[in-house]
Amino acid sequence: xxxxxxxxxxxxxxxxxxxxxxxxxxxxNMWKYVELVRVWSDEVERADMHRKFAPGRDQxxxxxxxxxxxxxxxxxxxxxxxxxxxxxxxxQGKGVGTALMQKVLTEAExxxxxxxxxVLKINPAKQFYKxxxxxxxxxxxxGKDCNGMERGxxxxxxxxxxxxxxxxxxxxxxxx
Length: 176
Description:
Layout: H1 3-6, E1 10-13, H2 19-37, H3 42-52, E2 59-63, E3 66-75, E4 80-87, H4 96-111, E5 115-120, H5 125-131, E6 135-141, E7 153-159, H6 163-166
Parallel strand pairs: 4-5
Antiparallel strand pairs: 1-2, 2-3, 3-4, 5-7, 6-7
Helix pairs in contact: 2-3
């Protein structure tokens, strides 16, 4: 599929029937990174996903009626938070993620609000966010799981409200 075809995506509200798709999507995309910081456990990861999954707020990304990803954005008083974006590997690098993110960044600009997100420091998606104008503003140890294993370091990334017009967001960098 070319980028033009891929950019013709649609979103629909997730239902509990989508939970297994979202869990398997997360497993496909995140297993190798989780394994670098702790042992992947389907039971632990499924419970964590069950706590985070929000039917109605989570959106299923579709192409030609087929579920290909998940997307969740929360609008808060002072910022827009990107909580979840994942695509099946065969749809990554095809323009879908960029189209979804540009929509959020354009909306943030019109509302004059920054966009924040958290990503594992070792996740290559961090480069995708940097390309869109996000910069790391904080590194946060994400604690230990129920087995006492370190969860890794997450980066809090931020794009200024005007990131879509200035290209790269010009923000201070800091590590806490």
